[in-house]
Write a structure and sequence with these properties.
CATH architecture: Roll
Largest sheet: 5 strands, antiparallel
Structural class: alpha+beta
Radius of gyration: 16 Å
CATH class: Alpha Beta
CATH superfamily: Hotdog Thioesterase
Order of helices and strands: EHHEEEEEEH
CATH topology: Thiol Ester Dehydrase, Chain A
Number of domains: 1
Strand content: 25-35%
Helix content: 10-25%
Strand order of the largest sheet: 1-4-5-6-3
Number of strands: 7
Shape: elongated
């Protein structure tokens, strides 16, 4: 399974009036995990753009399990879910580093488009080559 882990320290400006992380910031943490995963495995936004493609998010899910607060060190684990379609599915688990408690989990689904926004119904050559490089069979 292709996965990566990215540590994030909760900053003061991530908090809401209740002094816990505002729910929308977990999406920002997913993004940090997605960017870290992309750089690690050669499927970053830059790599995709250089291949003449874009990957807009079409689905985003987030389940909140526990709050986090200022100074917490969070670990965002991002894992790739293989599929045969022309899309990238990433799953996320955010845990508190101190006790491994799950704070949130979620998923994003991205599709491939060309730079004019036309969706690619079949996996583009870039993605096929990427999958082959990492031994992804679906």
């Amino acid at each position: 399974m292709l996965s990566s882990k990215k540590e994030i320290e909760v900053q003061f400006n991530d908090l809401d009036p209740l002094n816990i992380v505002w729910h929308g910031n977990y999406i920002k943490y997913f993004e940090a995990g997605r960017e870290h995963f992309g750089r690690k495995y050669g499927i970053s936004y830059v790599d995709i753009r250089e291949a003449g493609l874009a990957t807009p998010i079409i689905t985003l899910k987030c389940d909140f399990k526990m709050y986090s607060k200022y100074g917490d060190i969070l670990v965002v684990e991002t894992s790739y879910e293989a599929c045969e379609a022309s899309k990238i599915i990433l799953n996320y688990t955010i845990r508190k580093k101190a006790n491994n408690e799950v704070v949130a989990s979620g998923q994003t689904i991205q599709v491939f488009t060309d730079h004019s926004g036309v969706m690619q119904l079949y996996p583009p050559e870039f993605y096929i080559n990427w999958k082959n490089k990492w031994g992804v069979t679906k």
